[in-house]
Amino acid sequence: MKIIPLSEGSFTVDRSKKFVPFDQQTDDLQQRAKGSLLVEVQPFVVITSRDVLLFDTGLGFETGGVSQLHRNLNDAGINVSDVTKVLLSHLHKDHSGGVSLEGDTGNPRRVSFPGATYYLQKQELEYAMQKGFPSYIIDDFEPLQAASNVVLLDGNGTIDDYIRYELTGAHCPYHQVFWVAEDNSTIFFGGDVAPQLQQMKSRFIAKYDYDGKRCMELRKQWWMEGEKGKWTFLFYHDIKTPTFSF
How far is CA 146 from the centre of its chain? Predict the structure, then answer.
């Protein structure tokens, strides 16, 4: 399996939940609003013998009328039409911004990967539609409700016998994680329950998590299982250390 990180860069986020680009070489975090957090954003592509898998879809920013996610894919040598499955951990704005694109003049927004199948927890979509702004930007993922290429999952299960998903909650009520197993290798994507390497190695409890203690417990469990099973971890919010393999 081939792993391709698709870094979108670093941002600061304050209580407004607005993501403001941050250059770690030149910008000063102390000059941002009080309480601002530094957040790195990084979707992933995993190429298997059967699929081109996209894990989460970034912020959905556009430059020159082209989405950053599509641009990053093209830069990695992957055509948008090559993506066969979009695996969504949850629908917070920094994970679902690239789910859809603005429609042409007079037309509604459309899913950004029409040739792929989107996989999402049914309850997460329902919760996000109800909860809305500021954590969720409904316009970004509303097209999923009517799209024919969306599979709404319910709890735990498998996709095509080699992708396993599990409803974890913890970061938000209906967050899910994924394992991809092929050729005696296992890749694990923990979304925002396991977002950074350093959090896997510490007893860190974040106030912004729905259940921070549960997040910490799951990270400890997965780290032990990953060491035993020789997993490769994908870290969505860690562009310095995007992956780690035992």
Answer: 21
CA count, 13 A, side-chain hemisphere, 125: 19
d(CA 65, CA 193): 32
Q: Are 178 and 156 in contact (CB under 8 A)?
A: no
User: Which ranges constitute the DSSP H helices of the chain?
Assistant: 68-75, 93-96, 122-131, 138-141, 197-200, 212-229
**Domains in the chain, number:** 1
Q: What is the pLDDT of residues 170-224, one digit of tens each?
A: 999 999 999 999 999 999 999 999 999 999 999 989 888 999 999 999 999 999 9
Q: Residue 26 class from Cβ within 10 Å (0-12 exposed, 13-18 middle, 19+ buried)?
A: exposed
In this predicted model, what pLDDT tens digit does every residue of 67-85 receive, in sequence order?
A: 999 999 999 999 999 999 9
Domain carrying residue 74: 2-245
Question: Measured on CA atoms in the order 96, 81, 194, 34, is the torsion positive or negative?
Answer: negative
**Placement of tokens 């003049």 in the chain:** 105
Tell me the one-letter amino acid at 60.
Answer: G
59 CB burial (10 A radius; 0-12, 13-18, 19+): buried
What DSSP string runs through 16-40? T--EEE--TTT--GGGSPTT-EEEE
How many CB atoms within 10 Å of residue 197? 16
The CATH number given to whatever domain includes residue 87 is 3.60.15.10
Q: At residue 22, what is the residue type? A: F
CB 90 within 8 A of CB 171: yes
